[in-house]
Design goal:
The structure is a homotetramer of 362-residue chains. Chain A is an alpha+beta fold and 362 residues long. Chain A has one domain: 4-Layer Sandwich (Chorismate synthase, AroC fold). Chain A contains nine helices and 18 strands. In chain A, the strands form six sheets. Chain A has a five-stranded antiparallel sheet, with helices on one face. Chain A has a five-stranded antiparallel sheet with strand order 9-8-10-16-11. In chain A, a hairpin with a 2-residue loop joins strand 8 and strand 9. The mean pLDDT of chain A is 95. Chains in contact: A-B, A-C, A-D, B-C, B-D, C-D. The interface between A and B is large, with 109 and 110 residues.
Chain lengths: 362, 362, 362, 362
């Protein structure tokens, strides 16, 4: 319970630091008899890989995943799947300075305060590099959901800085998300986002944004009141991702200015199923899925690493000015999209297995 | 792991339904040798109690708490504290209609979908009445935090409908919050909020809002990366509260439009401690407390129960029109304030005990 | 995670002290739509009740259970079932002496060492009285197993002092166990056990023993390797019962002197099912049920409370002689039988729900 | 919660199969700022390594451990430690036959029943090879306990077949255990055990036994009543080890024939500490450590793999005769000693961290 595991039924345990020899995740509780090959996972990892476009850090990592256990003759066996991703491009000389001072906006100070020690190379354990292991585990969850339940998880960049995309979340699909390097299916907005990132990079600055996620075909009835509500677990999953500052479901913070008479989603029958005419709920009521699409948004702060001089203090408590070096994304949003997909899929599958048992009802 | 427990170290297990003979919470993991009497808990319960003002449901419940275990001669013993709150005013005849149809915006349909059965009286398990047990447990957590660590948790109504209070969160205190019946320390805004609630009630409608919470004097170093981050657990805690739709920390969704150069909080020394000049982080970096005030906001939807005819379907799948009766608050916000306080305190204490051991380092 | 909860899916949270106003257990994760009334639980409680025969403590408690939540119109709703058992016969004046000195064989010293405080009345939290709450929860588990799966749990007193019953575990049934006041289905041995208890009581002494438990019709495939093996969880469940000193499954400690050629249970087909010719495994292999009867034994130490002067030390560290007063069973075995039944049933159901999901596959 | 994790605070997650490319364990919750190198772990692994003596399987594995994360400049950082042990000697051709039939005494049938699939090579996940990862994790726990608390864990072979060693558990030390290849500090008994193993091997048979473990210098006060008692967790830990059939603490099953007047351990003062004159309790009362040595015994069945024809059935349900090939130990006891040490140390450290917090009170 020391923080590096997530999920009760589909349970992932993540390990690794930015500049260690490898990072990885152990997946315990994957249903047996599901076809699984490294290629299934690699596809998702490639979406998160550094160096994939001009928008991302120049650090180049192949991020090739190895499956070390839990698969026999191409099928999962129900036993833990150990996923290992070797790190190859780990230049540690850039980090001498930050070993002795706390980077603003980073977790240097808090790790030092908690543990009395920290691995400073590339941010060590607090680096977003550890999300590669999450994406790998999430690829397995997404595959199961898609193949067994036709559940699809689709995230995209809805907002970058002041640029807000005009997107109907119910109509987006993965191909549209992947059609440009900022992962925004609104082509015009994507252009402006790319321009904004370039501009920020030139100014040695960074920019925040919002990712929206839509999950379709979730069966009604998933979620465990009172405290393990499906939306509560999604909120936790999202706030566990590096650089996130907020989560909202359905109407979200916009609900504050609404009246009950407009917010309540009226029920009706459609194709023999109970559905709602609107979806302000965002697909979850009382912590349990309604069967309508689950829609939520996650706020990401601007990348903390910027190549500007910043005021800070040293480990010894002396004032200093620090200029973060290293290799960084001017905005984490495009590469965070597959991380949101991963954590969302893991959360949904976890609750699905709570309902069906460890083998996923098969 | 069936959903009714929260916390790993200070662990609460909540039970009860709206119209049952009683509701309650078992607190396991309360540090020993802390003075505790029923009056300590009652004070917080009275803040949540129905019928406390014109703003709330006319259901009248004394909500008198009983401590059934875990306290010996006025001191906690480290063993489970069983808290019981008898229900007295349970009129079940109002609920015949909703037994057969699903109320829009409520969890009737989702409980039915999940369990194949539900207790319809007053919403059964999905009723906000169960938060009384949470408030009782939270009173214990708040007392420990206040007495041992000088940590204070102060929530207030920041927004109600379109009315947004002008409040400096760093300056608010509990007495100001309690100075009016909507629990908004901005007196002028409070007036308008009261008017808005009255107006909504007259229109048989309801209104949403935002509660802000500030937690002071949290020591740096609390939180367990990667997945049990302090903010991730706070997000989960808040989304577990009835009627919530969003959570944001520090800059929150506002961070999307900010640049790293403005968002990063510069470090400096103050009184021998590392502090930040600004607090966009909201007191948490990398999932670990910084020592700065923890500031977050929670969105609450408008009360789903409104005395208007609404379109819905019956349990048998037939279209119908339902007019919710029963006794309801036009806005849940004023009475949700102590619930936010409770869940926040439980989360902070839980992480504090992770750092210090079960006895709280005493 | 502070120790008072057991089970991951069918999860019980136990609270209360010997001389408090009540004791109880919250059951979270009981499958919905199961018929349940207080009488179903009372039957098991009556088997554990003090004062039921000349063999047990003269303390008289009706131990009438109340269901406070989780049941609607006679059916479980899938939400927490709060079970409350008021205590009526709590004479606290007997305990002045033991407040100041540690009773040998009891947990007085260890509770003091751990918590720095303890409730001394009747042993407080360490009293076997708290097992009443366990028996109540176990009654629910037994009912589900019996009705849905035809799984029966049958424990009996196999050994008391040097008296060992001649019983074929595969043939025993509950009625035979209940046919005498020591709960030993071997009538001749039961006579000697009764005589031994009387003799011990006259000598102001106590006596230990062994309870054997057999669980029939458990489907093959339950148990979670590596660490949540079914036998590992049964071992934990049994060692969690007061006064137990050992657990063994199938051949148990006797396996040490056996050869593999005799110990291995040969497989064969019977009625279309894979069965074993012998059952040295005790119904579990590799931590997973085989489908054969699960057979295990639990060692209970002689009651620590004896009305003899015993050497000990005071809370202040001074040597003293203590003569335990209060009301005690000369042997805990007869009343421990329903506790073993309860913990066994809870453990089996917990693993069954891991396999089938929260609703038990219904 | 799918079975491959153990511990709540010092939490290990184990993965791997007998003939996969590697096995390993992730340790989450190791206190920070402890010196740790691969050599510290290798020493324990070498004690478990196959091929170390004539008593063990001829399978030759170097079992060289790699630390992939969680250590910076020779010190633990408080973040997960990923331990990887590559497998080199994996001959899969021996296992064609057992893919189609269930080996008696092995988990082939139960894994098939649970998962509907299994990796048959070398027993796959149910192989004792996975305990290498446990031993590696346990080496870390033992190092912390020894260095910070002077707590030592010492297991040895007390019984092999009918040969019972005459050993005073309170006097044994690690060097005496390691003085011969059966790990029995009674030299004369060790001779007879070696002879018995040779004789069993010649007869293509195997032999069971009992390992005793003594843990010294555990501080009083560790353990979480009611269900996470220290002895309950030790029992679970031991039954989680392959081939175990029983656990007993202190007087163990022998307590059945004892009277309270002889079993109760009288308290006295010694060196300013509360101690007991005898230790029938085995160092734990009411689930909490007394400060006296913790003493327990674990029963191991004879190795299921024997090179004799055995009756069984095929996966298709046809009777057949199977003669297990592969490479096996005639008795698992000598190599199980470090596994018992490991699980014991992990359990003790886990409870120690519950008392002191994640950093071990440093």
């Amino acid at each position: 319970m020391a923080g590096s595991s997530f999920g009760r039924h589909f349970r992932i345990t993540n390990w690794g630091e930015s500049h260690g020899p490898a990072i990885g995740t152990v997946v315990d509780g994957c249903p047996p008899r599901m076809e699984l090959a490294e290629g299934d996972i690699q596809a998702e990892l490639d979406r998160r890989r550094p160096g994939q476009s001009a928008m991302t850090t120049p650090r180049s990592e192949a991020d090739k995943v190895q499956i070390l256990s839990g698969v026999f003759r191409g099928q999962t066996t129900g036993t833990p799947i150990s996923l290992l991703i070797p790190s190859t491009n780990t230049i540690s000389q850039d980090y001498d300075e930050i070993e002795h001072a706390f980077r603003p906006g980073h977790a240097d100070f808090t790790y030092q305060a908690k543990y009395g020690i920290r691995n400073p190379f590339g941010g060590g354990r607090s680096s977003a590099r550890v999300t590669a292991g999450i994406v790998a585990a999430g690829a397995i969850a997404q595959k199961f959901l898609r193949e067994q339940l036709n559940v699809t998880v689709t995230s995209y960049v809805r907002q970058l800085g002041a640029v807000v995309a005009a997107v109907n979340p119910e109509a987006i699909h993965r191909a549209a998300v992947e059609s440009n390097i900022v992962r925004c299916p609104d082509a015009a907005a994507a252009e402006r986002m790319i321009a904004l990132i370039k501009e920020s990079a030139e100014k040695h600055d960074s920019v925040g944004g919002v990712i929206e996620c839509i999950i379709r075909n979730v069966p009604p009835g998933l979620g465990d009141p009172i405290f393990d509500k499906l939306d509560a677990d999604l909120a936790k999953a999202m706030l566990a991702i590096n650089a996130t500052k907020g989560f909202e479901l359905g109407s979200g913070f916009g609900c504050a200015a609404m009246h009950g008479s407009e917010h309540n989603d009226a029920y009706e029958m459609k194709g023999g199923k109970v559905v709602t005419k609107t979806n302000h709920a965002g697909g979850i009521l009382g912590g349990i899925s309604t069967g309508m699409p689950i829609v939520f948004r996650v706020a990401f702060k601007p990348t903390a690493s910027i190549a500007q001089p910043q005021q800070t203090v040293t480990v010894k408590g002396e004032a200093t000015v620090l200029e973060t070096k290293g290799r960084h994304d001017p905005s984490v949003l495009p590469r965070a999209v597959p991380v949101v997909d991963a954590m969302a899929a893991i959360t949904i599958l976890d609750h699905y297995l709570a309902a069906t048992g460890f083998a996923g009802g098969r």
